[in-house]
Amino acid sequence: MIPVESDIEYRSADEIKLYQEELLHRALHYLNEHSVYYHRMFERYEIHINQIRYLEDLVKIPFTEKKDLQLFNEEFLCCPREKIIDYVTTSGTLGDPVTFGCTEKDLQRLAYNEMKSFACAGLRPGNIVQLMTTLDKRFMAGLAYFLGIRELGASVIRVGNGIPELQWDTIRRLKPDTIMCVPSFILRLIQYAEEHQIDYRHSSIRRIIGIGEGLREQDFSLNLLGQRIHDKWDVDLFATYSSTEMGATFSECEYGCGGHLHPELIIVEIIGPDNLPVPDGEYGEIVVTTLGVEGMPLLRFRTGDIAAKRTEPCRCGRHSFRLTPLIGRKHNMIKLKGTTLYPPALNDVLDNTAYVENYVIEVQESEAGTDQVLVKIGLKYRPEFDAVKDLKDRFRSRIRVAPDIELHPVEVIHAINYPAKSRKPVKFIDKRQ
């Protein structure tokens, strides 16, 4: 645990900015000396790193994009290969996965990051965390969670994802107080408990930390998925945001007002359509510069995720800014019958419909060049009314428009959701060019 008096997150906004600018200066010199890719970029664009003195000067530097990491992966490596002790890959959301090599220092940084994030969510030595995420399949997050819990001094149970029966058997035997998993899996846990007369409301679980899916609206109230979980199970819910590329996590504190930045690990810009920073509070694309990464640090990496900064001090006492819940990925934006939306808006309706067991959303271009959205659904049970009509009404009441809907056997949708090589449930398939 880091004492409050020495934690940069509790310093003033001006102190945090000065601190980050010093770390940025070190990062630029490190990249110039050790990165083939960035050294070439600085020369090509005549960027003099000593003139990048303030965070505002970052706009003088070109962005790094996913395609750069795919095309020039080896050139991002900043250390000899023998220093790499762990290899991970991204989930491949936007195409081929990207490989990252982590040094011992990088793994220590990951442990530190997750220690701070778990502490932000209220974990302390003595807590017991049941990890419902994989540590294999080249997955950075599962390893990071394990390292962070260990660094914090709490206890960890590595169960892995899926298998509700094994999860409940573990809870009964070892009595963890915290679960970490994809939020929609909680509904499967609850369903299994209800079907097998497990008194889950009086179990040892007091806290759920969600990964990979949102739990809150933009005003920080629980979204439909979060509310559905809370109505069934009165436990504390915490949302997180992270990615392999940034090697950092934004975790909510007990007040649930956005994910807190760890200033010593990452610099964040929010970029508008003109590729310039937007005013605080406005939505734009999250662009990150990693700090303290030894193996493959990144400079102004475009995440494709859309959110906003909240800069007012949090009631928890931290003064570092927070990120709002994501409203979606820039590349996944949908124009449906004149309405602009992102997949989470569709997920929210489907996750809150009792008779929907599973689903996948497919988007493709119509002959007219507009977006065509098809939702394939597996039914938990067949209601007495017309399920397709009811779902279309639910979509219209929530987002004003309704996608096309098809009903399929649950097994068919499950096979789409969980392909053999996937580490995360596949609920969105973009077939657009």
**Helical element count?**
11
Strand count, sense and barrel status of the largest sheet are: 6 strands, mixed
Oligomer designation: single chain
Summing up helix and strand content along with how strands pair, one would put the structural category as: alpha/beta
End-to-end Cα distance: 48 Å
Mind explaining what this structure looks like?
The protein has helices spanning 13-34, 36-44, 66-71, 104-120, 140-152, 164-174, 183-195, 224-232, 343-351, 387-399, 410-417, and strands at 84-89, 99-103, 128-131, 155-158, 178-181, 207-210, 236-243, 248-251, 259-260, 266-271, 284-290, 301-307, 309-310, 322-323, 328-329, 334-336, 339-341, 356-365, 371-379, 404-408, 428-430. With 433 residues, it is an alpha/beta fold. The chain has 2 domains: 1-327, ANL, N-terminal domain (Rossmann fold), CATH 3.40.50; 333-430, GMP Synthetase, Chain A, domain 3. Strands 4-3-5-6-7-8 form a 6-stranded mixed sheet, with helices on both faces. Strands 10-11-12-15 form a 4-stranded antiparallel sheet, with helices on one face. β5 (178-181), α7 (183-195) and β6 (207-210) form a beta-alpha-beta unit. It is globular, with a radius of gyration of 22 Å.
